[in-house]
Amino acid sequence: MVEVRLGKHVGFCWGVQRVLDIVNGLLDDGEQVHVFGDLVHNTSVIEELKVKGVAFHKEDELWNAEKLEGVVVVRAHGMSPEERHYLEEISDRLVDGTCPIVSRLFKTGEAIEKEGYQICVYGNPRHPEMRAFKGYVKSAVFYPEVGDAKKVAVLAQTTADFSKFKEYAASLINTGRAEVRVINTICAETIMREMEVRKMAQECDLVIVVGGKMSSNTRKLFEIAKDHVRTLWIENEEEIKGETIQGKIGIVSGTSTPIEVVRRIVDYIERGG
Ligand code: SF4
After folding, report:
1. Which secondary-structure segment (H or E) carries 186?
2. Pick the catalytic residue: 31, 129, 189, 196?
3. Which CATH number characterizes residue 207's domain?
4. Radius of gyration over every alpha carbon of the chain, rounded to an integer in angstroms
5. Looking at the 3D structure of the chain, how many domains does it have?
6. Nearest CA to ligand 1 atom 6
7. Cα–Cα dist 2/21, whole Å
8. Among candidates 7, 3, 48, 1, which has minimal Cα distance to 210?
9. pLDDT tens-place string over residues 176-221
10. CA-to-CA distance for 136 and 96, rounded, in angstroms?
11. Do 157 and 194 sit in the same domain of this protein?
């Protein structure tokens, strides 16, 4: 007996859908599109775009790239100002696919640094979004560092775990500084998915998290669920073949997972494999 509970917030988030629409629009206009790094963290989406003609370049090849015919699209995670400037110089034009919520984080960090605050970020400094952020806020320090400035501002990677962000902010407040300014820069979409998976993990017998293995927001959903219940992290229905699927099954997805992939998994489970 199987009962499937599908999350309300599944499939692409608004920011991922936006950058994909930008790329597909350019392809429809006959443009040659170049992207540095994964446009979004999902293998099937990237493969589909390669077939349509998008040229993907490795991130670490950016500074060696020479004249590019066509348009470079900045991915949803954004890029540092230096990288953007360089790509503008060597391509026909640059089109900004940075999610506006990510751009807002960059602008907020820049503005507050100018006001004299030490910026402390709850995020992974190796993640593309945070590497881009460091291009805007060069003096930023990252969790678990707390810096020694008297005035600090605490920000977060847009896909960070909300509870852990609050703990980090509290740890800074507890250091007795003159001023600690806390600005929640986590994307509401990821907070809603986090709340949803936490509830499912408490009410279901199994939680299936669908999304790319490089996706930080998908990893976060998996980490939250696995502390409470048996949890599988898969990219497609092929990966659940052979697994025991029984009882109440909660299904959620990362923000760069196509809804069609989620539907195929639901269908596969409801048909009994
Ligand atoms: S998760 Fe939020 S911040 Fe990230 S791309 Fe989607 S809408 Fe933008």
Report:
1. none
2. 129
3. 3.40.1010.20
4. 20
5. 3
6. 15
7. 36
8. 7
9. 898 999 999 999 999 999 999 999 999 999 999 999 998 889 999 9
10. 16
11. no
pTM over 0.90: yes
CATH classification at residue 53: 3.40.50.11270
Phi, psi of 30 (to 5 degrees): 80, 15
* CA dist., res. 125 & res. 131, Å (int): 6
Probe target for ligand 1 pocket from 102, 129, 221, with the most ligand atoms within 8 Å of CB: 102
Given a contact cutoff of 8 angstroms between Cβ atoms, the answer to whether 253 and 222 are in contact is: no
pLDDT, tens digit (0-9, with 9 covering 90-100), for 99-148: 999 999 999 999 999 999 999 999 999 999 999 999 999 999 999 998 88
Q: Which two tokens stand for residue 179?
A: 């001023």
- Angle among Cα 166, 216, 44 to the nearest 5 degrees reads 155
* Distance in Å, CA 244 to ligand 1 centroid: 33
Tokens of 207: 């939680």
